[in-house]
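tmp note - Uroplakin-2 isoform X1
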Amino acid sequence: MASPLPVQTLSSILILLAILAPGAADFNISSLSDLLSPALTESLLVALPPCHLTGGNATLMVRRANDSTVVKSSFVVPPCRGRRELVSVVDSGSGFTVTRLSAYQVTNLVPGTKYYLSYRVQKGTSTESSRETPMSTLPRRSMESIELGMARTGGMVVITVLLSVAMFLLIVGLIITLALGVRK
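out:
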C-alpha cells in the first residue's frame, strides 16, 4: 500500500512551482519619475515589456485613480539591442552625450493626476501581465514661476547677428570713406 505522503508532497511542490515560476506571467514596469520631470505634465514614460516578449502584441492599460475607466493602447514590443534600460548612453564625446530612451510614452493625460498602468503581452499562445504600477503626472506650473536664468532665446541670437553685421558694415564704410578722403 502506497503512502499518501509522496502524493501530498508532490502536489505541494507543483503548487509552489506554479506560484514561484520565473516566467509566471508577472513582470515589473517602472517610470522615469524624476529624470524628465519638466516635460511630463500631460504624459508618462513607461518602461517597455521585458526582452523575452519581443515581437509580442502588447496592450498598455491606463486607469485613473478612483475611476474604473481603462484606456488601452496596443503596439508590438520592439526588439532589444543589448540590455534594455529606460535611458542608456549611446555615445559620449567631448562636451556632448547621446542617449537612447527605451520607453513607451502615454500622452493626453491630466496634469497632477495619479494613474495606474499595467501591460498585457500576448506572444504566441502565452499571455503575460505586469503588476499594476502607480504613476503620477506633474502639476502645471505658471509661466512666471519658471526661471530661465541666462538662457539664450532665438530673438537674442538674431539681434546679436544683426548688430554684428551692422558693425562690420560700419567699419567697412569708415575705411572706404578714409581711403577716398586721402585721394583728394
